[in-house]
Specification:
It is a single chain. By secondary structure, the protein is of the alpha+beta class. It has 3 domains: about 90 residues, Phosphorylase Kinase, domain 1; about 240 residues, Transferase(Phosphotransferase), domain 1 (Orthogonal Bundle), CATH 1.10.510; about 90 residues, no CATH class. The chain contains 15 helices and 17 strands. A 6-stranded antiparallel β-sheet has the order 1-2-3-4-6-5. Strands 11-13-12 form a 3-stranded antiparallel β-sheet. The longest helix has about 35 residues. The C terminus is likely disordered.
Length: about 450
């Protein structure tokens, strides 16, 4: 039925003529399609074998996809033209996109131009994708399988297609087999664990690894995480987490560390970081993304990364970010901080000991545990020791903490507090020593300077 060129001979379904095979998926095959009465209009038809799709779980997904595609209408979501059924197959006829998948375009672009997408291209593409997701979320629909393979590209003409002119491309979201519509009875939460692992929310991935159901439920923020991984891949040309095998992949996701090129703009770092937050409530919403500087500003006005502010997070030519604990990164790059972060994630405030009025204040830093790393208590300087005797102890503490620059943000804040404390004592100690020297200088005199 299919020859060596991928052409189908005499495959007709009513007035549809299925010609060239465009690709195969898990549940069916897609064909280039024309209508018998109008051979100049081209469509794409997904043919699904009923022997596979009639299984209860698969049939439910098929009905789900058709029901959602029938009611949605957005320029960046593929349109369902019609659906047909025969004894052996189901047929879903949709509009045709001539550029293939976005993942394929990315690979071809890198091969053709020997470089990655520029940020103006990423901005142009993400505007369309985020617009589609915003439309879905506004209508209480979760896609749950966002990835580059599920985004098709359509070029206006053959010239743009052959040159991969991405700034003239239109992208369309496809494959709603895993999508779901939230209802008021669900309290805007759903529980089923579905999706592609490399783009999946960490909590859902954990449920998948443990073969458990998501008891707490999840909302539209699962799509936001997937959007972040998708944008990361457009920028770097590779998946955000890569493992040797599935267990190694799970380990990388649990660590939550990823790298962005230092050549990136501050705006795209903020954009990606706002989506790739481990806690769903800390992620941007689709509406937040629509208003973000990365999508609204002219790319010529983007700002470079200030390396002086993030030097402790630089690894080679990359900026190292952890999805679990990056409040400092957020404070540097992101415009808006969700209330939940400000409420729950603020740094612990050291207590001030003002028992000795008029003397230098001593900051008490208590024992804390950040990221399972034990931070030892820092011994307070004993106020009972005369200030001139304390000098060497203070300078030693100050120098030790000046020389060490490692650790996480909380540890650096603790060291900064200690440095301020030690510097205050150092200055007061030196002042006391100078006063002692002045007194010794005039010990042989009956009167001190200023007295007659």
């Amino acid at each position: 039925m299919i020859n060596d060129n991928g052409l189908v001979s005499k495959m007709k379904v009513d007035d549809l003529i299925l010609t060239k095979s465009l690709g195969k998926g898990a549940f069916g095959e897609v064909f280039l399609t024309i209508k018998e009465n109008n051979p100049y209009e081209i469509f794409a038809t997904k043919r699904i074998d009923r022997a596979v799709s009639d299984k209860p779980e698969n049939f439910k997904r098929l009905l789900n996809e058709v029901s959602i595609l029938k009611v949605i209408n957005h320029p960046n979501i593929v349109k369902l033209i019609e659906s047909k059924k025969t004894r052996s197959h189901y047929y879903l006829v949709t509009e045709f996109c001539n550029g293939g998948s976005l993942s394929g375009c990315l690979r071809q672009y890198i091969k053709l131009y020997k470089r990655l997408f520029t940020e103006d291209i990423i901005q142009y593409l993400m505007k369309q994708i985020v617009s589609a997701i915003y439309y879905l979320h506004k209508n209480k629909i979760l896609h749950r399988d966002l990835k580059l393979d599920n985004i098709l590209v359509n070029f206006k003409n053959d010239e743009d297609k052959n040159s991969l002119n991405m700034m003239k491309a239109e992208v369309k979201l496809i494959d709603f087999g895993f999508a779901t519509k939230l209802h008021s009875s669900q309290s805007n939460l759903t529980h089923t664990v579905l999706g592609t692992p490399c783009n999946m929310d960490p909590q859902l991935l954990k449920n998948m690894e443990e073969h458990t159901r998501n008891v707490q439920g999840y909302d539209s923020k699962v799509d936001i995480w997937s959007l972040g991984t998708l944008c990361y891949e457009l920028l770097t040309g590779k998946a955000i987490f890569i493992g040797k095998d599935l267990n190694d992949f799970y380990k990388k996701v649990k660590e939550g560390i990823y790298f962005l090129p230092l050549s990136s703009s501050k705006e795209i770092v903020s954009f990606i970081n706002g989506m790739l937050q481990e806690k769903p409530e800390c992620r941007y919403s689709a509406e937040d993304l629509m208003k973000h500087d990365f999508l609204t500003k002219n790319p010529k006005e983007f700002h470079p990364i200030d390396r002086n502010k993030v030097y402790q997070f630089i690894s080679g030519n990359n900026l190292c970010i952890n999805v679990k604990n990056n409040n400092y990164i957020w404070s540097i790059f992101n415009q808006k901080k969700p209330n939940v972060i400000m409420k729950n994630e603020l740094m612990p405030i050291p207590e001030m000991d003002e028992s000795n009025k008029g003397k230098a204040k001593v900051i008490k830093i208590h024992h804390h545990n950040y990221n399972n790393q034990q931070i030892p208590k820092i011994q307070n300087i004993n106020n009972n020791i005369p200030i001139d005797k304390r000098n060497n102890q203070n300078i030693k503490l100050y120098q030790n903490n000046q020389n060490y620059q490692g650790g996480n943000v909380q540890q650096r804040q603790i060291r900064n507090n200690l440095n301020i404390n030690a510097q205050i004592h150092k200055d007061n100690s030196q002042k006391a020593i100078r006063n002692n020297q002045e007194q010794q200088k005039y010990q042989h005199c009956n009167t001190l300077p200023g007295k007659k």
